[in-house]
Write a structure and sequence with these properties.
Elements (H helix, E strand, L loop, with lengths): L2 H7 L2 E9 L3 E8 L5 E8 L6 H17 L10 E7 L2 E7 L6 H10 L6 H13 L1
Antiparallel strand pairs: 1-2, 2-3, 3-5, 4-5
């Protein structure tokens, strides 16, 4: 089954690729009922079956679950998760402005830093978990 078919089974319409890594891909999708756009990170079932990749995928999903209650413009919080024969799928808040990493890189290019209140909100999550 294609990514489009898998997403369709979960109630999402595939809108295009965002990024690809060693064991996961990220695509943009739209919830067919609400129209909400999401980023879907799919951990490939074959590449994440065993070993280091499987551990990293599980750890990342766990961190996404811990961060899910948060709400920040540059953090793609977990909305829901699904599993299929293709892999594990994390439906994330779509950050049209880019990731926290890209936001920080843009600030650095301008010789600026994140304001204290934003930095506190991003980092406080890690102290509670």
């Amino acid at each position: 089954r294609s990514v489009q078919q898998v997403l369709q089974g979960f109630g999402y319409k595939w809108m295009g690729p965002i990024a690809a890594g060693a064991f996961a891909t990220i695509v943009r999708a739209q919830n067919t009922q609400t129209g909400t756009q999401v980023a879907v990170k799919t951990f490939d079932a074959l590449k994440c079956a065993t070993g280091k990749e499987a551990e990293e995928a599980e750890r990342e999903l766990h961190v996404l679950e811990l961060l899910a209650p948060g709400d920040h413009a540059h953090i793609a919080n977990l909305l829901e998760a699904h599993e299929s024969v293709a892999g594990k799928h994390a439906m994330l808040v779509y950050c049209g402005g880019g990731s926290l990493h890209s936001h920080l890189a843009k600030l650095q290019k301008k010789h600026r830093v994140m304001v204290e209140s934003d930095a506190a909100m991003v980092t406080c999550v890690f102290f509670f978990f």
